[in-house]
Amino acid sequence: MRKNIVAGNWKMNNDLAETEMFLVDLKKQVFPEDVAVMVAPPFTSLHHTFNSLREHPVTIAAQNMHQSNEGAFTGEVSAKMLKSVGVSTVILGHSERRAFFNEDGSLLAEKVNTALENKMTLIFCIGEELADRKAENHFSLINRQLSEGLFHISEAAWENVIIAYEPVWAIGTGETASPEQAQEMHQYIRKLINENYNETIAKKVSILYGGSVKPDNAAEIFGQADVDGGLIGGASLKVASFMKIVNAF
Ligand code: PEP
Questions:
Q1: Positions marked catalytic
Q2: 234 Cα–ligand 1 center, Å
Q3: CA 12 to ligand 1 centroid distance, Å
Q4: For the segment 39-65, what is each residue's pLDDT rounded down to a tens digit?
Q5: Alpha carbon distance 149, 26 (integer Å)
Q6: For a disulfide at 230, which of 18, 108, 213, 237, Cβ 3.0-4.6 Å?
């Protein structure tokens, strides 16, 4: 059985006081047993969030990390530092990292290796731009992103990998992929994993959809056979809307 997962990506939102307000509310919630709930606050709130949620079934994820374990990389944060504040899950390859911080396939492959060497779980994001979809290049683009960044890992490493398919044209735009478009791509991703690895891994890996998931469209998207949950941006910033999505399976 694959895990259902809902992960909130706060991006560069919520300072420490706002984080605390969110956590006070979140800790009052009852979490469904069959959904793994994750939140990804900014670096400055990770330690506090980890301490605050120790007794609650919520995984804390980082939004990024550096590919080196230490060194002269001003402004960067390593896997070891994340683990020292209780964080063992990291989002890698978000489209905003790819677009605004020039993260390409080979850099992401290094980050993937570093995360796995440090025994972290990673949420590996892939997704096409609108132009790719219009040109009907979306399948080959997804194949390329997976081949460049992820398909070098060992079979055993897949235990610690979650994939998030996030069409860039649907992120923060209010425009969602239709449930059929999401299903079609998730099925294709599973087919690629089967071709590059095997059916057991392909069936076991959780593939999340991301891109304007909201309380009113989550159930339909999560109801698709190959969609195992969501990576949620805007709608994860308020506990009420986040919990509606958590409960949408
Ligand atoms: C995201 O940033 O991963 C995301 C899916 O954002 P939104 O839900 O706001 O589209």
A1: 94, 166
A2: 6
A3: 12
A4: 999 999 999 999 999 999 999 999 999
A5: 34
A6: 213
Verify whether ligand 1 is closer than 6 Å to residue 212 (CB atom).
yes
Could you give the C-alpha distances from 132 to 92, 129, 177, in angstroms and in order? 21, 5, 14
Is residue 79 within 8 A of residue 102, CB to CB? The reply is: no
Q: Of the residues 14, 97, 213, 222, which should be mutated to test ligand 1's pocket, given the most ligand atoms within 8 Å of the CB?
A: 213
For residue 188, count CB atoms less than 10 angstroms from its CB and return exposed for 0-12, middle for 13-18, buried for 19 or more: middle
- Specify the pTM: 0.97
Question: For position 1, what pLDDT does the model report?
Answer: 75
Got the DSSP string for 87-147? --EEEE--HHHHHHS---HHHHHHHHHHHHHTT-EEEEEE---HHHHHTT-HHHHHHHHHH
DSSP 8-state secondary structure symbol assigned to residue 185: H
Mutate to test the pocket of ligand 1, among 123, 162, 166, 214 (most ligand atoms within 8 A of CB): 166
Torsion over CA of 217, 174, 238 and 112, rounded to 10 degrees? Answer: 90
